[in-house]
């Protein structure tokens, strides 16, 4: 047994709907039709734009993180150098105390670089690979100055006796109306020493900051 259901969907109704749709499309202006066509062609563009913006934000964030890390490294290096500088200054003060307490012009432990000694002394005794006579590198004792854990090691210094010279007379007047740094009276001489200090032994300093300072000390 078979049934015919064609009468439920008359062809005339389907045809009328198709004609109505065509009439609606034909009634739209060309601009509306163009916008409708563009809207159908722009599907997925929002995703591409979002991905590009996400990439740009990521690059900006990475640049900011890199700048922050670089600033932290610079601050750490500056702090490390300041600590090494202060440690080297402490070594200079300890060397001056040793010079003041020494007996004789060039006692044991001081390198004789006076004009009459005939020794060739470089400006930086730590850089002298073949010193004559041998250089005595003194490490500051922790009882005199404790560098602590902030530096790589205890500071060191070298004392060199430069000779006995006339005290210079600068163009200044003291309160006593006597020129020069010596007491009033006849010409005065003094022993001069060159002190070179460094923040620590480079072998133990590794990648830490290293500071070398030099001063001239007069002992009357």
Layout of helices and strands:
Blueprint: H1 11-27, H2 30-41, H3 45-101, E1 111-112, E2 138-139, E3 156-166, E4 189-198, H4 202-205, E5 212-219
Poorly predicted residue ranges:
none
User: Helix segment count?
Assistant: 4
Span between N and C termini? 138 Å
- What integer value in Å does the Rg equal? 44 Å
Oligomeric state: single chain
Secondary-structure content class: alpha+beta
Number of DSSP E strands: 5
Shape: rod-shaped
Order of helices and strands: HHHEEEEHE
Q: Look at the structure and give the mean pLDDT.
A: 78
Percent strand: 15-25%
Main sheet makeup: 5 strands, mixed
Helix fraction bin: 40-55%
Please outline what is shown here.
The protein has 220 residues and is α+β, with helices and mostly antiparallel strands. The chain has helices spanning 11-27, 30-41, 45-101, 202-205, and strands at 111-112, 138-139, 156-166, 189-198, 212-219. It has 4 helices and 5 strands; from the N terminus they run H-H-H-E-E-E-E-H-E.
């Amino acid at each position: 047994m078979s049934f015919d259901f064609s009468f439920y969907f008359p062809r005339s109704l389907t045809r009328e709907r198709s004609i109505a749709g065509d009439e609606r499309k034909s009634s739209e202006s060309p601009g509306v039709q163009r916008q409708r066509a563009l809207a159908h062609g722009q599907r997925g563009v929002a995703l591409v734009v979002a991905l590009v913006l996400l990439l740009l934000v990521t690059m900006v964030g990475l640049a900011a993180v890199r700048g922050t890390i670089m600033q932290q490294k610079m601050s750490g290096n500056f702090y490390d150098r300041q600590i090494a500088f202060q440690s080297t200054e402490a070594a200079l003060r300890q060397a001056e105390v040793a010079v003041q307490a020494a007996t004789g012009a060039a006692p044991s432990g001081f390198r004789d670089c006076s004009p009459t000694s005939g020794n060739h002394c470089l400006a930086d005794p730590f850089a002298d690979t073949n010193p004559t006579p041998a250089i005595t590198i003194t490490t500051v004792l922790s009882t005199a100055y404790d560098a602590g854990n902030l530096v790589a090691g205890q500071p060191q210094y070298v004392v060199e006796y430069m000779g006995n010279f006339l005290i210079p007379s600068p163009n200044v007047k003291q309160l006593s109306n006597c020129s020069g740094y010596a007491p009033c009276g006849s010409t005065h001489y003094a022993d001069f020493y060159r002190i070179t200090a460094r923040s620590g032994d480079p072998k133990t300093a590794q990648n830490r900051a290293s500071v070398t300072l030099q001063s001239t000390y007069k002992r009357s």
